[in-house]
Amino acid sequence: MPELAEVEFYRKQWSPGLGQRVRAVLVHPRAKVFRECNVRRLVGRLAGATLLSSAASAKQMLFRFGGGRWLGVHLGMSGELREEPAGYTPRKHDHLVLVQRDRRLVFTDPRMFGRILFFVGRGPPGWWTRLAPPILSETFTVAAVADFLRRRGRTPIKPVLLMQERFPGIGNWMADEILWRAAIHPRRLAGVLTPAEIRALWRESRRVCRLALETIAGRGNDMPPALNVRIRDSWLFNHRWEDGGRCPRTGARLVREQVGGRTTCWSPARQKL
DNA sequence: CCAATTGTTATTTA
DNA sequence: ATAAATAACAATTG
Q1: How far apart are CA A267 and CA A176, in angstroms?
Q2: Which nucleotides of C are covered by protein (CB under 7 A)?
Q3: What is the pTM of this model?
Q4: Which residue is nearest to nucleotide B5 (CA to C1')?
Q5: Known catalytic residue: A156?
Q6: pLDDT in tens, A120-176
Q7: Measured from the CB, is A230 under 7 Å from any atom of strand C?
Q8: Would you say A239 and A173 are in contact if contact means Cβ atoms under 8 Å apart?
């Protein structure tokens, strides 16, 4: 499930372990999630280190430990982070467990499209610093979006919104949410959007990121991504998976089809080719 | 057995 | 050569 706001939610699940030492590291060393990572080195260098801080950007998380150790986590399609009690026994899909005195910090991922990265050095690693600047930062301008759409002019707008180099953190449901709010058909070619549509796309990209962070990442306790009832009918999100679902704004039937290889939901009443 | 899944990347096609 | 489309990755669920 993890897109921008869910990633931020999961990052915080390890916050109870901040300032605490890692006594041991438990791994399933053959798991695919370690494909870009030297597992033995990770286990050796992380044991004894203290978790100092964490950050999330796009769909990537970074955990900083004492001694210049940096742990990267990408949740892929099915990854989750959670806290378990000190005595917790890791299960089949718990590929990485940080053992602290009072708890265990667990990374679990059944499908294993996720990814664990590890780096030792003074500053943060390149795979972190090279991430595209956030959609909610000043560098995400209308001009930057317009320029990107021009270069991807022959591609439908839906898959363009999934391109992390310009829309970091956007995933399948956020892309549909943005297009629905901007009233743009997902199959429209990126190169044919009007200046007003480009501006709407820019504005709704920022709004969906902000609202998603407030409503999903802001929740302290239970699991995302169910959005709370108060905003239920103002989000496409809550209707996109129901068969026979209806557009919250027009009441018309929603459509679900493949666009750019991904299931895409839109409201034909608002979003026209 | 078939199809589905909120991600990314390698390979193939145009 | 470049960009776009498609397959592949793996596990589980309906």
Answers
A1: 10
A2: 3-7, 9-12
A3: 0.94
A4: A77
A5: no
A6: 999 999 999 999 999 999 999 999 999 999 999 999 999 999 999 999 999 999 999
A7: no
A8: no
